[in-house]
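Could you help me review a protein record that somebody else here produced? Here is the record exactly as it was handed to me:
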Amino acid sequence: MIRRLAAFVKSPIARWIVGVTLLMSALLIWRPTFCEFFELKLYDLKFRFRGTLPASRQVVILAIDDDSLKAVGRWPWSREDMARMLTRLKQAGPRVIALDIIFAEKEQTVSYHALRKLSEALARRGVSPEILKLLEVEKKRADVDRQLAEVLGQGPPVILGFFFRNLGGKSGGVEAEKLMGASFLQASTYNVVRLLDTKPSQVHLVGAAGIERNLPEITETAAGDGYFNMIPDPDGTVRWSPMAVMYGGQFFAPMSLVTLSHAQAKAPMAITLSQWGVKEIRLGRQSVPVDRYGRMLINFLGPETVIPTYSAAALLDGTLPAEALKDKVVIVGATAVGIYDLRVTPFSGNFPGVEVQATIMDNLLRGNFIRTPPFGLIIMLLVLVALAVMLGLTLPRFSAAWALIFTLIVIESYVALNYVLFTSQGLQLELFYPLGLIVLVYLGVTMQRFLAEERERERIRKTFESYVAPAVVQEMLKHPEQLRLGGERREITVLFTDIRGFTTMSENLAPEALVKLLHDFLNPMSNIIINQGGTIDKYMGDAIMALFGAPLIQMDHPRLACRAALEMVATLEALNRTWAEQGRPPLKVGVGVNTGPVAVGNMGSDRLFDYTAIGDNVNLASRLEGLNKYYGTSILISDATAQALKNGFILRDVDLARVKGKAQGVRIHELLGEGEPGPDLARFLDLYHRALALYREKRFAESVSAFTETLKVRPGDETCHRYLTLAQKHHEIPPTDDWEAVTIMDGK
């Protein structure tokens, strides 16, 4: 056992697993953008699979929607319209109101502007102070900002929203109290700040470079203020809420927290910080789970409108039920598409920003949080190590199929456990890094197994390749069970080629010259066959037998065989020109091609066998090769091959021949090329086929004239000369009535 374990530790698989574990651990610690992108998308999928959760009904949205814009007018609304809406809202009796809106600029109406100009003009002319006081009173009445401020200060508390500029960087170097005043700081910052072992300047917290807040006269009358900034992840999706922002040496609280503080009788907002960042945030007695940067994961309840949403138009026209807003936390904001306060969330690409704020408040009210475990990084590192050890000890013991099944079981188990913890406990654990480790370990083990098998295959290949063709070796390696006598019935294309007049030529050459001639001929011809995907079955002196479609299945084997035949003839013509310059005799070949079912497999004895094909269709290919010398052609193919080609090759109908061993005539064709024929060849073929049709119809006199005309286009065509001779003979001595245009071939 110890020896086996020691051998495993030294094995390439163990080194791979250790390397993968270190890699995924490093990625988990550094979290590069491309890894986080996948992790975040997997996080979003958990929300989508979980589905929609019911809202608490304690938080509602008063939406400035499309109906509201139709009823009141385009956005932004005037201060008078906002004051009218807020007056109606306060009459409905909400517990607290939060405004996801900012009033950063003064609004001056025409009447206010006119009164101000009149007051200034009269003051320059020395009008009595009583008149100026009356004008000042009227000017205050025309000041819509002051009117809105007065409405905000009445009735249920109102929390104003503001936002920080350039959020996410370092805090701006300002003194917040001098810039904003003590009252604003008191209304918008944490009540209790505990610094355990650090200074405020050393805190790892979200900072801001500037602030955009409401007008001072509006801010003074509001119950509180809170920022409504959201920081999307690199993919543009909002998943976190910054629960604390450091600016000017102060720690600001978000609008959601300030609002609920007032809803709970001004429950204290406390933040505890250490040199590692934010340690704790509390609202009253409730602890808010945040990371070291003070960010809280938002537990989105579902797509838009899960939080109860009512139109501001319904409030203004009195159709909204009185109990809809009673004792509720009401957040007012825009949801109309044209206002563009839309966010991307795990559920939707067009999620109203005001509903994000409402969702955060719902999470805080119910304590329905998404948490990361304490010491989450250490836990995930231990998970990675545990998975690596388990897979490393088990996968090498399994077969390839069982290794895949076991890996899938591990993946499904981890995903299921992760999902259950997420939905039932609100616990967020990473998915991408453990799944990446599982997949990489499996791939590494599989690759090592594959390489070991390849080494064994290579050993077998080198052993057998000296005896059989390489393609046959590959087939043996894929299917060792075929190493037996017999085979299978399969449709393939068989090619035979042979040198014309080789016997006579060999009598006039020395043995050495004959061997070199054969080598110079067989070598390029063999390469052509192999390059076209064929298998050289055997050499028979100067002849070659090749198979297309076996042992490897090839759907287009007729086309491959015909291309090989054309390339062989063309290559030989080029070789003949080279050999002529060397004073060597030219060669001429005949090629026969036939397609059909044959018996293919290992044939021979128990001691010695060979991969080959046998059958009537093999014999026919051999006969076609021999018929080339009779018709004066180079390549003859059977009608079965011609039918399989369908198109794309140039063919000539040669004859109906009854070869030896065949009771019926076989239609044979000459293969002339691939593609479309040129004008001269097309004219020749048209004349030839017309003359051949006349011959087969026993119209011999017309056939003589037609073949004579055809020979004018190609005078040396031996097939035309043959048919011209036969037509003249039959014209002089007509055949019997049962005559058929079939040539009987008695020889091979």
In short: The chain is about 50% helix and 20% strand. Residues 590 and 634 are 5 Å apart (CA to CA). The mean pLDDT is 87. The first helix runs from residue 2 to 10.
